[in-house]
Amino acid sequence: MAWFDHQGCTLHYTEYGHGTPLILIHGLGSSSQDWELQVPVLSRHYRLIVVDVRGHGRSDKPRERYSIPGFSADLIALIDHLDLPPAHVAGLSMGGMIAFQLAVDAPGLVRSLCIVNSAPEVKVRSVNDHWQWAKRWTLARVLSLSSIGKALAERLFPKPQQADLRRKMAERWATNDKRAYLASFDAIVGWSVQERLSRIACPTLVISADHDYTPVAQKEIYVKLLPDARLVVIEDSRHATPLDQPDAFNTTLLDFLKTVDTTTRITDPC
């Protein structure tokens, strides 16, 4: 475990393994703990850096407004702190949004992107969009984090054999700082880099669960806007794909990274 300071906030990260850096970014209300089924596998091949986003996990939870560009700035500061070469970057849900933001803010820092069950924007446009977000906004403020965690765990891990995942998620969700959770929730709504996707030249893998919150068709639309991207759908999975289908996820990500590394070595004149 290690910490570094950025803009008055102490941020936590953990490193494993050696080689080309690979940064993992968790989602809203999650933490670096939720990559536990990836760490033993990925760290055999890469210098794995697993972060706790501002307001989450062991990182500080300053009483201020949060933003996706702000989370990206924290990540840039970490990359500078560790003096990393261009890194592979993978993000789940809100972590995918932060990865998108990083790729448009500082493309020279990113060797490749892996976007998991995420999107390049969260815009509220239709009447139904406004209703759905208003409902989520209200419930997030009225319900306890314990209640939210239990409800989400039931939705994400509904199978009888997933009881341990349900329990673990509910317990971890309840440890969130509610003010930081709400500030992170608010940071998502209205955010977008969709119009800047053509600037992302690095190889990009978009992973979608077949039963994610948003349909595969929505990912197909934005994948076409990326210069060098492909979509992989993982079956029998919901929003937390790295946890409910770890073997398929790990294999898919490793195959992509190895292809990127091999291609880069072949085409690099150095």
UniProtKB/TrEMBL annotation:
Do the record's keywords include Hydrolase?
yes
Q: Which Pfam families match?
A: Abhydrolase_1
Q: What GO molecular function terms would the record report?
A: hydrolase activity
Q: Which UniProt keywords apply?
A: Hydrolase
> Sorted alphabetically, which InterPro entries does this protein's record hold?
AB_hydrolase_1, AB_hydrolase_fold, AB_hydrolase_sf
Q: Which domain of life is it from?
A: Bacteria
Looking at the record, the residues that make up the AB hydrolase-1 domain are 21-244
User: What is the protein name for this chain?
Assistant: Alpha/beta fold hydrolase
The protein's organism comes out as: Pseudomonas quebecensis
